[in-house]
Every structure is written in structure tokens, then in C-alpha cells.
Amino acid sequence: HSLSDTMAYQQKLAEKLTILNERGNGVLIRVNYIKKICSDPKLRPSLLTDKIMDPAVKYINKKFPNVDFRGNNQHLTSIQRQKAEVMSAASSYYDSFLDVMEFRVNILSLALSINLHIEWHFPSINFDLTKIYLDLIVTYTSVIIMLSRLDDKKALVGMYNCAYEMTNGTCDSSYPRLSQMLIEYEQPWKKLHEDFGPHTRLVTSAVLSLQMVYPRRNLPADQWRRAQLLSLLSAPANMLDPARCDTVACEYLSMEVMERWIIISFLLCPSSVNSHPPSLELWKAALRSGLYLTLTRDEALNIHKVSEEVFDTVMCVLRYGKRIADIKECREHAIQNNGALHRERRGFLRGALKELFNVLEDEPGLLGPKALYVFMALAFTRDEVLWLVRHSENIPKTKTPEDYVDNKMAELLFYMVKLKALVVKHSYVIQRYHVQYLAQFDALVLNDTIQNMYVCPEEESILTSSFVSTLSALSIKQVQNKEKFDFRALRLDWLRLQAYCSVNKAPLPLKEYPDLAKVMNTIQFHTRLVDNMEDLLLETSELSVLCFYPRVFEKMFQQSSEEPSVKRYIMAFPYICSDFICCAHPLCPEEMEGIQSKSMRLCVSSMQQIAKLTANVVLDICAEQCNLNDQLLPKNSAKTISTARNKKLKKPVPKKGEVEMEKPGAESVRKDRAVVTNMDKMHLTLTELCSSYDLCSDFIVSDHIINPAEFLLSHLETRLSEIIVKMANNSPPSQEITRPSDLLAAVRSYSASLHTISGYINLDVSRLVKSILLQQTQPLDSQGSKTITSLYTNWYLESLLRHASGSLIAHSPTMQCFINQPSDSDLSFRADEFSDISELQSLAQLIGPYGLKYLSENLMWHITSQVSLSPFLTLCSLSLSLPLVGGENVLKRMTIIGVILSFKAMAQDCLNDVIPFYILCIYQYGAFLNGLLPNAFVLQVTLNVFELASAAGFSCDIDPALVSAIASMHKTSVDEEYKLTCLLLVYIAVSLPSLALDPNSLYNKANGGHNNNIHCLAVAVNQLAASMFTIQGKDIEQQLEEFLLLASSTLLQLGQTVERVESKNRDSVYLLLHMIVEQSPFLSQDTLEGCFPYVLLRNAYRSVYKSCIVTLG
């Protein structure tokens, strides 16, 4: 071998370039991370925020690098006291700066070696070597620029070295070189020019290798359209032919990468621009392409401003004055034309990607020969998206700012995602095709090419032979057996061969064998399709930079969500967040958590917005349907019936000024189908939004599984719960609330409308509705808000029953409801409209057994507050020695208790009517146990059975809820409670005659009860006595018989009075005895006849009904 060839083998240029590139990316990300945390007040290191350290930081920044660490320097006393903590806190930053210095040394050393030996050719010859070299230059420049933007680097390095010297007595060995590097690169472009000045020839020749590729790629959309770029349908006869070209890798090479190579390389070597016309043309073309270039993450380079500074300060102004004028001209050109140029490109790509996806989805077999088209499409689209992202943050002053706004960005992202998913789904097709292609075509062509080479040294011969043998050994069976392929060694060998054959005076000069390079470049692409497709997809479609532009991401999403025709694509925004984690680097693990949190935040916020948009449309449709359904309710039929009756009776026609009422269904009558109604628009919007959910059923973002349908369900659940409560229309000051039947009709209408969503998207609507209605049966929902159970419970207690306790509302056993009493103070509602059977059945269906249990508990609380055993019964015991002191108060309390229990019984009966339609098994089981329960059962078992039966709506001999409520009150001894209970019954019995003095005690024949609700005393006595004696373990029947004897005796005495005033309502009061016995499961009519003459009851009924007119038919 020649000396240069031997050096190429020994220096391992290919390996060094590969390793340094990977290392450089990590160092760049690390420096950027340090800059971000130092500039963020929330993340800034404590060393720089601690006020105690302020004097030390200012002193080090002022004296750096010659900081006097010795002696009693009062500025550094804070570091002296905490030197161990300072070293620990600053060590990671110091080590990162050492990494930069080490990277710089290796780069400059490698650049010198390459400058001495390597020569560049066109991309079709040694593309990989050229690419990796230019990448390394750009990465190194970016590291230095980022280092210069880090304001706190001197403080961090100086503080670490100060603490180190205070601890070890001498400064860190690397500190002099590191501090010198930081000083030298304070003006980075000047020093970088010095570093790369000797390499101008090599750098320029590397960049000029793009002069054929870059202009061909940088074309306007109309030329793409004329060339039918990315179209598989333009030449149907060639559809099955494999996509081939001499520069395969250049076809999907990022435009931004090429522009970065060109701009930064000529900034490092500006002299070539002035002396070489092709360099000047390439440089100007890149300057016209945009205003900013990405260094890393969201750090951008203002290319015109920096170029002007470099040519103005670093180079001689007199020699480069024309170039400054060129820069200004290019900037004006970019501002005026680039916005429209890229807008047109995005418009073309939207159509091209859609066509490409539709063809490949229909014929996935074409992914084999046309795989290159997919990666070209992804790369072109990614370039346009990233261009808009970095320019949207800094829109220049232009007459057409709308060029920098794209409200159809979602469509581009959507088809990028769909194409990627298509490639992943049919990867087997691509792999199978290219394994056969490599073995049966590429290997043969490569072998023929090698055979035609007239010279091939031993090392090169070994590599080329290994290429052929590796490819020839491939078999379709390996794909069928799902074997893992790994061609990384082959690709690295090809990079080595490029390095060997690109040195000066190489024995096998690659430029003399372009066919070998073209074949190997194609083979490299084909091998990546077999074993490295994921990285290839990442390279051409990765959009992780959006993670660092959250405002741009949210702005683009908002613009797309407002465009009706793009709503079906907006799911692409949260989906691309799954790729953000790909930009993390092992050299900066601290950044991982931040990227994950940003990804999740952007994903969740956009998912919430999509779900909100969908839920709004769904609920708007439901509301419209509810309004239409409301027109069909019986309450709204009166006007229609009245109109029909008037028409039949030939009454006068309404005047012309009066608007005739439309009949329900008129909205569906159309004279022209082209007329679009509001409902049509809402259904179209819903169709578009629901189509976006078809993108995927779920995806992973930062180790979290994101299910779009669950977001929608969650929003619908929250919103629908709010709507149901809002439809209840509860207003405590005015005592208004929606009738339960009306609310039930509205809920049913919403439920029916929600089930239509299943035609648009795969949602478990039944589970959603059940979950919402189940929450409404509790006092608070999952959000902690009040439910209709809470609202109706409060309304019935505070409005209906409170007025009933004041005799403004009467309980009517005949009509089984509460009715308004004629009075001076008119109520704002009609009691019968909220308490009849149909309304209470509707209430039972709305709030269910759970809600009625909550209602029952609140009713029991009011009963216990009326009973208040201690003061109430003490009053009874004291009053026995006096002539009926406070009798009216006791009977009033008992009447209120009776009213509450009567309402509870009505609600229970209505629950019993509706529950068989919902929980038939519980209903049947409760009925069975309640019917077969023997009297001798254990008390606790009896109460448990009664509780089950009560939950199913059955009436029980003993009310378990009342037993539980009374038992929970403050207790004295059982004997004492028993005495007080007996005294209470005695007091009630002896107080009954006083009711005859009340004019409202008159029995109302129509209502079947007394006007002052004293007929409810029967329920109160029976239920209260049964509950109290159950708790005390006494015989209920015996105690009630004694009460009946005493009550009969007192009422018989009432019959002996001759005063007309006292006996006015005597007959109405007599009926109470019959009611008590009739409603008691423990007393019988025989018992009543034994203590109270039946003739008196018969005469009493005759007396109260004598003026009642009975109509038959």
C-alpha cells in the first residue's frame, strides 16, 4: 500500500467520524439543557440563585479566568463555607464543559487528518462520508454557538474550580485550558474562522458536492406539479418498476440539513464565497431559502443577521462589501417570496400525500418497489412543517403575514402519520421484497461491477467480496421464519471503503468507479429497509422539535380546529406527541423528564380540546332533539286541540297579524334539498370530528396509553351531568324546579340522541348513560357537584313539605297527591303537579332506589328533629299534671311527622311501581321475603328484610329507616324511654278532643282527608309507635290497643259535651280512630268495635258525606 492508503487504514477515519458525530449530538443537547435551566428562574441552579453566593458570582465573573482563590478574599467566603456542596452542585456542569473541550480537541485533530488525505466528490460517489463530515462540522459549530450563548458558564466553572482549589490546595488540571477556551470563544465566529481557515478547500469542496442536488430539490410547487412528483398514477405502465436513481439517499435528505451545511460551512470559510462563483451561487440560494436555521431544539440562527456580522466584523469590509449587499438582497427576497413559496408547496403536498396514501392503502404490494416514494414524501412534508414552525415564532414584517399561517396543517400531519402507520403495518411486504431484491439483483450487479474493476487492493477486495457474499446468502425463508436482520456491519464497511478510496492517490480511487458507488448507495438504502426501517422513518418524519415550540403547536392546532374541512384530521396533533421522546439523548438523561411532561401536556391539552369540540356538537344535537321532542309532550297539545276545535266549530279565523303556530315536524319539510339546516351543519361537523377518532384506537405518549374515546366519554359525562342539573332549573328563592316528568322526558331524549353517536364512533354509550344517571342518584357526582337527587330532595323538603306543615298544602289520600289549599298567600307552584303518581314515578325513575334512600334519610332527619325525645317527651310528662298544657304543639308536631311519612309512603309506592322494569330480580326477591317473613323472626333479621323490601318500594309493617333514625338519637335507659313513649301516646290520646275546636279539622269529602292534615296523625301514630316499641323490645300490638282504649274513651267524652262550639267538628275527629285502625297492621276492626261503638263511626261518616253529591257516569 502507499503511505496515504496505509494511513487511511490506520487512522480509522470512518469510525472516528461516526463516534464523534454521536458524541457531538449528546454534547450539543447537554449544553442546550444547561442553558435552558440557567435561564429558567424555576430551574436555575441554587448556586446562582442563592443571595449568599451573589458576591462570589459577581467577583468570579469580573476576574475570570484569573481568579485569586487564595488568601482571605471576603468575596469568596460563602464558597469557603460550603465548598463541598459547591463542588457537588457544580461538578456536572464542569464535566459538561470538559466534554465540550475534549470534543473540540478531537474535532480539530480529525479535521486536520481529513484535510491532509481526503478529497470529496459528488454525492453519488462518497455521499455517506461527505454527509457525516458536514454533519460533524455543523454539530461542532452549533456546540460552540450554544456555549457562547450560555451566560453563566464562567460563574459555574469558576465556582467549581474555586471550591476544588480550596479543598485540594491546587486548581483542577483542566481548568487553565478550559478557561482559555471559554475566553477564546466569547466571539465564536472569529475563533471558528481561525479553526477552519486552513480547511477552507476541503470544506468548500464538500459543500460544493451539493450544487447538483440542492437546486434540484429546491424547486417551487408548480415545477413539482408539472413533474408529477410523488405520483404513482402518472405512469401506470411503470407502476411495478422499482424506484431507482443514482443518489438514493439524497432524495429523502432534509432540505434544512443541506441549508445548514451550506450556510454554516460558508460562515466558517467565507473566503470561498468571494473567490469561487459556484460557491457564491450555492450560498445565495441557501440564503434565499429562509430566515432561520435550527441549531438544536428551539435554538435558531438568524442566518442573514449572523452572515452580515461575520462579513462585517470577522472579514475585511472593503473586500466583502458586495457580499453584505448580497445578504441584504437575499433577505429581502426571502421575506417577499418564501412565505408564498412554502404555502404553495404545502398545498401541493397535501394532495400528493393523500393520493399516495390512497393508492398504497388500496395496493400495499406497491410498498415494495415504491418504498422510496414514501420516504421522499415524508421528508418533503417534514421540511415544510419544520420551516413553518421555526418561522412562525418570528414572523417577519411582510405584506402577506397570512403566508405564515396554515389552518390546514392538520391534514399534512395526518397523512404523515397514516403513511408511517402504513409502512409499519406492511413492513413484512417491504422486507420480503427487498430481501429478494438484494439477493437476486443487487448482489449480482455488485458482483459484475467488481469483476469489471481492473485494480482492487487486498483490503478493498476483502470488503467488496464480503458485500457480495453477505447479500448472496440472503433467502426468503429468513423473512418467513422472522429472523432478525442486521446490516450495520455492511454499512460501516461501506463507509470504511469510502474513506479508503477517497484519500489522495488511493490505489482504488472511488471517483474512477462511480458505478460501484451508485450500486453500494442503493444497496445501503435497501438494507436499511430490511433491518433499520424504524430509524429511516424517524429520520424522514420525526417532528420532535414541536415539543420545544409549545406556542406554535397550540396555535397550529387551534387554527386547524377552527377550519371545518380539517376537523377530521386534527387527531394527528396529539398523535405526533408520541414521537417527541425520540429526541432524548443518553448524554442528557435529565432532559427526559421535561420532554415527557411537555409531551403529555401538549397531548392531553389537544385531546381535551378535541373531546370538548366533539362533546359540544353532540350535546347541541341532543339539545335540538330535546326541543323537538318537547313539542310532542302532552302538555303542549292544548293549542293544537283548541285550534282543531275552533276550526270544527267554524269560529272566526285569526287576524293576519297573528302568526299561525307550526305543528311539530314542520322543520323536516323541505322544498329544496340544497337548503342546509342548522341540524345538517351540526351532523356534518360531528361526522368530521368523529372521523378523526378513526386515526387510531389508542397510542402511547411517555409511557401513558392515550385512548381518545375515553377523553370524549369523560367530557360527555361531565357536561351531561351539568346539563341534567341545569335542566332541573332549580331556583330556591322562587321555589321553582322542573317537574320530574318533564325532566325525565328530556333525559330520555338526550339518551336516545346519544345512542346515535354509535353510528359515528365506537363508544359504549350505554355505559356512559348508566354512569351519569347512577351519579345523579347520589347527593354529589364525581366532580363534587350537586345532583338532581340533592336538588329534588331539598325542594320537596323545603318547599312542598314545609308548606304542607303550615296547612297551605293538604295531603289528599283520595287523589294520592298533595294539593294547594285556598289561602291569601298564593304559592308559586301547584303541589299536585309535583306530587301526583305520574310525577313521583318519574322522580323514582330519575333518582332510583339510591336517590329515594337519600330522600328517605333526609325525611327521617326532619322527623327526628320533630320528635326530639328529650324535650318533647319531658313536656308530655310535665303536662300530665296540668290540663293539656301545650297540646296543640304536640299534635302539630305529630301531624308534621304524619305528613312526612305520608309523602314517604307515596314515593315508596311509586318506586314499587317502576322498579320491576329496572331491577326485576331484586323486586321479586324483596316481595318473596317480605311476604314469607314470620312474626317470630329475630328482630335484626326482620329489620334487614324490611330494609331490602323497602329499597324495592314495598311498604313494611315497621319502617326500617325510621327505626334506624330514632335509634341513633341520644339515648337514656330503655325503661326510661319506654315510659316516655307511653306518656307520648297517652298525651296524644287525651289531646285528640281538642282537634274538634279547630275549624280546619273539617273532613274534606273530595280529598278524603282533613283540611289541616290531621288525618296524617294515623300514619304518625302507627309508624312512630311501632318504631319506638321495636327499639325498646315491647309488644307493639298490646301498646297500640291500650292507646286505642284511651283515645276511644276521650273521644266518647267529647260526644257527651253539649257545647256546640266543642262539638262542631266532632264527627270529623271520630274518623281518626277508624283511620288509625285501618292503617295499622297491628290493630283490627274487632278491637275498635270493642272500645268504640260502630254506630258512632257510621253516623260520623254519614254526617261528613251528607252534602257530597255522588255522580255516576
UniProtKB/TrEMBL annotation:
GO biological process terms, semicolon-separated: cell migration; cell projection assembly; cortical actin cytoskeleton organization; neuron projection morphogenesis
Top-level division of the source organism's lineage: Eukaryota
UniProt feature coiled coil, ranges: none
Ranges where the record places region Disordered: 646-666
Database matches in InterPro entries: Nck-associated_protein-1
GO cellular component, one term: SCAR complex
Compositional bias per record (Basic and acidic residues), positions renumbered to this chain: 655-666
UniProt name for this protein: NCK associated protein 1 like
Organism listed in the record: Gadus morhua
